[in-house]
Design goal:
By secondary structure, this protein is an alpha/beta fold. The protein has two domains: 86 residues, Leucine Dehydrogenase, chain A, domain 1 (Rossmann fold, 3-Layer(aba) Sandwich), CATH 3.40.50; 126 residues, NAD(P)-binding Rossmann-like Domain (Rossmann fold, 3-Layer(aba) Sandwich), CATH 3.40.50.720. The chain contains ten helices and eleven strands. Strands 1-11-8-7-5-6 form a six-stranded parallel β-sheet. A three-stranded parallel β-sheet has the order 3-2-4, with helices on both faces. It has a two-stranded antiparallel sheet with strand order 9-10. The longest helix has 23 residues. It binds guanine. The site of guanine has 9 residues, from strand 4 and helix 6. Guanine (GUN) binds next to strand 4 and helix 6.
Length: 287
């Protein structure tokens, strides 16, 4: 049976340690690290994520400012909110929850966020910095996955990591971080031939495709490390259930270690958002 990589426990430790840093920050600078979270519309999953982000920011002693806007919000109105937050010295981090309603441009909004307040690490300048090995604000989910991998690998050097999925939010930055840790990295996606055979070669599998329980035990080399980024709501036996991109039941029999869903990557994403907020706040206060 695989070792469990407990994201909840690890994130609690990260948040507790951030709470100490927050007190030191407040004593030194006379204000709290501030995170503004912007949610447009009523997407149910986004509402849950935003609620959890605000709750954990408070647990870390930070100031969180929530902006809920109706789904009809215009690009101009959203731009104007971002410009106000960019100018506010008490806001150190700005997160606009994605996806946005279809009439709003995600790239335009992401570019408008001040680079130094972009705690998601999605601004093109932060994406470029990460790609060239100088990233400061690194996308939260891949950063959380790296902290989880460090729980079970002292050294990632030379490990063959297969990333399933090529999104801007997870797959691409994940591949960059694994490369920087000296892994041999393969990115597979919906057009890849023989995904199963490629995954079976991997020492580390990161599943980030958004397909419930796609990764089966036949895809996994015995003893491999499996990190499951997926959070999919499904109906099973008449009940709503959250499952990952990995078939946990069968894969946990063959993997060396595995992260669960829920209680795996999800809480680590939020912990890393708060780490980025602290980093952004320190960089801004000492600039
Ligand atoms: N939607 C899904 N994941 C994320 C994330 O990491 N950040 C933001 N802003 N939106 C998301």
């Amino acid at each position: 049976m695989a070792q469990l990589i407990d994201g909840k426990q690890l994130s609690d430790a990260v948040v507790a340690s951030l709470a100490e840093e927050t007190s030191q920050f407040a004593a030194e600078f006379g204000l709290l690290p501030g995170l503004a979270v912007v949610l447009v519309g009523e997407d149910p999953a986004s509402q849950v994520y935003v609620r959890n982000k605000v709750r954990q920011a408070t647990a870390a002693g930070m100031r969180s400012i929530e902006h809920r806007l109706p789904k009809e919000t215009t690009q101009q109105a959203l731009n104007s909110l971002i410009e106000t937050l960019n100018q506010d010295p008490e806001v150190h981090g700005i997160l606009v929850q994605l996806p946005l309603p279809a009439h709003l441009s995600e790239p335009d909004i992401i570019q408008l966020i001040a680079v130094e307040k972009d705690v998601d690490g999605f601004h093109p300048l932060n994406v470029g910095a990460l790609a060239s090995g100088n990233g400061e604000l690194i996308p939260c989910t891949p950063l959380g996955c790296m902290l989880m991998l460090q729980q079970v690998h002292d050294d990632l050097s030379g490990q063959h990591a297969v990333v399933i999925g090529r999104s801007n939010i997870v797959g691409k930055p994940m591949a960059q971080l694994l490369l920087q840790a000296n892994c041999t990295v393969t990115v597979v996606h919906s057009r890849t031939r023989n995904i199963e055979a490629i995954c079976r070669e991997a020492d580390i599998v990161i599943a980030a495709v958004g397909r419930p329980e796609m990764v089966k035990s036949s895809w996994i080399k015995p003893g491999a490390t499996v990190i499951d980024v997926g959070i999919n709501a499904i109906e099973r036996e008449g009940k709503r259930k959250l499952v990952g991109d990995v078939d946990y039941q069968s894969v946990s029999d063959i993997a060396g270690s595995i992260s669960p869903v829920p209680g795996g990557v999800g809480p680590m994403t939020i912990a890393c958002l708060l780490k980025n907020t602290m980093k952004a706040a320190l960089l801004q206060q000492t600039a």
